[in-house]
Prior knowledge:
By secondary structure, this protein is mainly beta. Helices cover 5% and strands 55% of the residues. The strands form eight sheets. Strands 1-31-30-29 form a four-stranded antiparallel beta sheet. The chain has a four-stranded antiparallel beta sheet with strand order 5-6-7-8, with no helix packed on it. A four-stranded antiparallel beta sheet has the order 9-10-11-12, with no helix packed on it. It is globular and about 55 Å long.
Amino acid sequence: MQIKKNLHIIITVSVAFLVLYAFFAARSLSHELQLTPQWTTSIFQTPQEKNDPSQIQLPFRLGQNMGYFTTDGQITLMESFPFQAAISTTYRTTYAPDSTRIPVYQLYSDRQGISDFHIEEAGFPYICDDRIYILTPGGYGLSQYTKARRLWQFEHSAPITTISSTPSGTAVGYADGMIFIFSATGELLQTFEPGGSTYPIILGTALSPSASQLACVSGIDQQRFVLTQQRNGVNKVVFHTYLEGNLREPVLVQFSQDESKVFYSSAIGIGIVDCTTFANTTIPLKGKVLSIQESHHNNLIAVLTKDKNRYNIYLMEMSGTFIGSFGFQADSAFITIEDGDLFVGRDTFISKINLDIK
């Protein structure tokens, strides 16, 4: 794994996290959080020769490079792309702005350099796990595909601003303030218009895993967060709150995997809403929220933000109790959590850090 070549990176990361540990341990927590660096590897290492389906392979995208890596630090695939790309745990694709025939590659394919199938439609792909969508040129229409076969398509009079996909359905938000909710087969189940703002654009949308709850951040000038839950088959507003500031860009909204909490980003940080009691906790953070990762093993969440060219990672309990943070300079970064371990990507390196609560 080119240990000698990356020794300086490993030492730097280790020292940084020893300092972080001293900071975290000084905090008053119900349990003690220990951060233990495991490894750091370059994405340009020689890829593992065989794709083993029994190994967990996690997708990454850093700058103009993307691929997969294993939890023990092996790069199984790495490729550079000149224009745009989309990648998930199942599929990946590269495309240009004028693409009319989009090649798609499967994770465990043995077809070296040859696409597994093509989507014969112009547009921009969005991939979530094993679900593939194409946004039509102009941004007014959406199609969902299962491999090369189109499942459904939908057109609206305003541009799409946000998409949320789960195995149970899809929610699509538009610039005119409308949200359309579709079943897993593409049946239009409901239209929803949060309203309440001078300019009713949808900035962020999340559909819960079971599709029984919908949350969104909407509007400019009295921007607000809205949570709905199904009542007799129809989503009804059960909680809303006006937000400080007025973001004018897409924002992250995300349900916890057990649907007990919903997270949303705002101009000052993130909010955490309890989906039963509707208690709302706000945590101030620096920068734009890019990713929220959840750890079932220790009831933690990690939040990645970007403030100019500085990335910050915040750790907190699911209840909203802030634990600590650290940051670094980079051109690109990502975080993901798997089996209680935090994986941090930074430009051309990926590191594994064990999160252990005792």
